[in-house]
User: Which sequence fits this backbone?
């Protein structure tokens, strides 16, 4: 019994490089860069960063309030 011959397509398939599929955020930034001028793009990015920072501060505040309540409740 002989092994099957190697086909040229199998050899080519090994040399094909995989390209990464861009994330949704990357694709959105690409569309944004086409549609908006530089100043608007920067303003939107700054606004979004502010939203994320506000959410982080709110989360920290809630965790601090919980810790304080637990420490006060644990005292006799």
Assistant:
């Amino acid at each position: 019994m002989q092994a099957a011959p190697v086909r040229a397509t199998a050899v080519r398939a090994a040399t094909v490089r995989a390209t990464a599929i861009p994330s949704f955020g990357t694709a959105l930034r690409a569309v944004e860069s086409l549609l908006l001028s530089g100043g608007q793009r920067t303003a939107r990015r700054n606004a979004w960063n502010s939203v994320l920072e506000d959410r982080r501060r709110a989360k920290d505040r809630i965790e601090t309030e919980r810790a304080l309540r637990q420490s006060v409740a644990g005292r006799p």
The mean pLDDT is 80. The radius of gyration is 27 Å. DSSP finds three helices and no strands in the chain. The helical segments are 8-15, 24-35, 38-74.
